[in-house]
Amino acid sequence: GGRDFGSPVRVNQLGYAGSGPKQASIVDPSATPVQWQLRNGAGAVVTTGLTRVQGDDAASGDHVHIADFTDFRTEGTGYTVAVGSAVSEPFDVLRNPYDGLRRDALEYFYLQRSGTPIETAYVGDAYARPAGHLGVAPNKGDTSVPCLPGTCDYSLDVSGGWYDAGDQGKYVVNGALAAWQLMDTYERSLYTGGWAGLGDGLLKIPEAGNHVPDVLDESRWEMEFLLKMQVPAGQPLAGMAHHKVHDLAWTALPTRPDADAQPRYLHPPSTAATLNLAAAAAQCARVWQLWDRAFSAKCLAAAKTAWQAALAHPAMYAPREDSVGGGPYDDTNVTDEFSWAGAELYATTGDQGYLKSITARITADGFSWKDTGALTDLTITRLPWRFPLARVLAARQRVLAVADQYVRNVRNQGYPNPFESADGSYPWGSTSATTNNALVIATAYDLTHRRDYRDAVLESMDYLLGRNALNQSFVTGYGERASTNEHSRIWAHQLDQKLPSPPPGSLAGGPNSALQDPVAQQNLPGCEPAKCYIDDIFSYSTNETAINWNSSLAWITAFAAGS
Ligand code: 9MR
C-alpha cells in the first residue's frame, strides 16, 4: 500500500522570514499551472496566484509545482497554502522564525554531555538524569578505560565529552568536526557578522553567565574530552589520538547512560582521528586566546604533537569491521584530513611548514566527518588575512562556484535541497549533507552579501522543516509533522511512556536510500531515495541524531536567525 504523506502542499512548517523567499512545493499531476491561495489564521484568503510547473523531481518521483508568495510580508501565525481542496500544514510569517531553534539546536549538546549530571535547572525534570560513565556502578567507565585487549597496556581517563548520538560511544573523528562547527559559529560571529556565536547567557547551560560565549563553553566540553584521547607522552604512538571509546557490545533501547553496565575500551589510534583532533585543537588555540590563555596553550601543544604523530604514522586506518558496540567511522584516505589540519595549524601559527600539506579543495561533493577536504577552503575563507593571497583568491573562487552549484540544486529540484547526489542515492545522515551544503552557501553569502545565497539558505531550512517529499520536519519540536521517535537510548518515549521524546531542536538523519537497518528494510522497500525515511525509534539508519549533524544545524540556524 502507498504511504500517507498527508497534504500534497508542502511548506516550511515552522515559518518563513518576512524578508525571505516564501514558496510551497505541491505534488500535482497537472502539466499546466494551477491556482493557489494563501490563507491567514482565520481562514481568509489573503493572496492568490498560479503555480509554476517545476516538473518531475528525480529524487522523489513526484511531479511538483511551486507556489511563490515571497511578496507577502504580513507577519502572523496559522497561515496555510491551499490548492483545490488540499491545504498545507500551518506556518508563521515572522521577522525571525529561527530565534528559538538557534538555541534549541545548541542546547542539544548539553543534553548529550557525558560524565556530568544533566540538571533540572537547565533542562526541566523530563530531561534531567544522573551523570553517566564516571565509574559509578553499574558503569565501568570512563575514568579509567583500558585499551582493547592486546593493543596497549595503559588506561586513560576519557570522561566527559558528548555522547555521539543514540548510542553512548564517543568518537574523535566526528567529535572534532562537531566541536569545530560550534567554534566556527563563534569565529563567524567575530569576523563576519551575526551575533549568535558571541552570546553569554544565550543557552541554558551551567556555564551561562561566566562571561564567555556559550558556544565556546559548550565546545570546550568536547575539546577537553578530545585532548584526553591522545596517547600520553612516553607511550608507543605518543601524540596519536585513540579513534574512539565505546561499549563492548550494543546496549538495548532504552538504556540510560548511568545504567550502562558494559565494559568500555579505547580503540587503537588512527591517523584520521589524530588529524581531526589537530584541526579542532589548532582552532581551539585561536579562539581561546582571548578568554583563557592556559587552555589555548594546551590546545596548541596538543595540535602540534598530534600533527607530528600523524606525520610519523600517516596510514593507520580505523577498520570498517570494528562496528560492534559502536560505529566504525572508518576512512582509508587521509589526504583531506592532512590538508584540513594543516590549514588550521597554519592559520593559528603561520608556520610555513604546514603550507605544503594544504592540498585539498572544496568540490560539489561537499564535506562530512569522512571527507574534510572542503573544510580547508572554509578555513582559508574564514581567516583570509592569515593565508597567502593567491590561495585566498583561489579558495574564495572555489567556494563561490560550489555554492552556485548548491543554489542550482535548490532551484532545480522539486524540493529545495542543496544536496543532490550524482547517482540519485541519499546517504546515511542525508539531512547533514543538506545542512553542510547550506553552510557553504551561507559562507558564499558572507563573502558577497548576494541575496540569492541568503535566499537559498532559507529555502534549505524549508526543506528540513517540511517542504520535502515526505511532508516531514526532520527537526524535533518544529512543525506539525516533525520527527518524534528518533533513535535514542535516552529519549525513548515510543518504547516507554514514562521516558521523554527527543528534545526540541534535534535533527534526524533523514532519508537514506541504502536501507541499512531492519525497520527501514521492512517498511521502505523500493522507496524513492528522498522518501527512504521512517520516524521509528529502531530505524537507526534513517532516524538517529548525531553531534556532527546538530552542529551543522546549529551553524546554519544561527545564520538564518542572525543574517
Ligand atoms: O554518520 C555515520 C554515517 O556516515 C555512516 O555511514 C554510518 C555507518 O558507519 O555511521 C554513522 O555514524 C553513526 C556511528 O557509526 C555510531 N553512532 C551513531 C552515528 C549516527 O548514526
TrEMBL record:
The active site is at D535, E544. Keywords: Carbohydrate metabolism, Cellulose degradation, Glycosidase, Hydrolase, Polysaccharide degradation, Signal. This is Endoglucanase. Its EC number is 3.2.1.4. The keyword Signal applies. Belongs to the glycosyl hydrolase 9 (cellulase E) family. Residues 98-556 form the Glycoside hydrolase family domain. The keyword Transport does not apply. The chain holds residues 174 to 736 of 736 of the full protein.
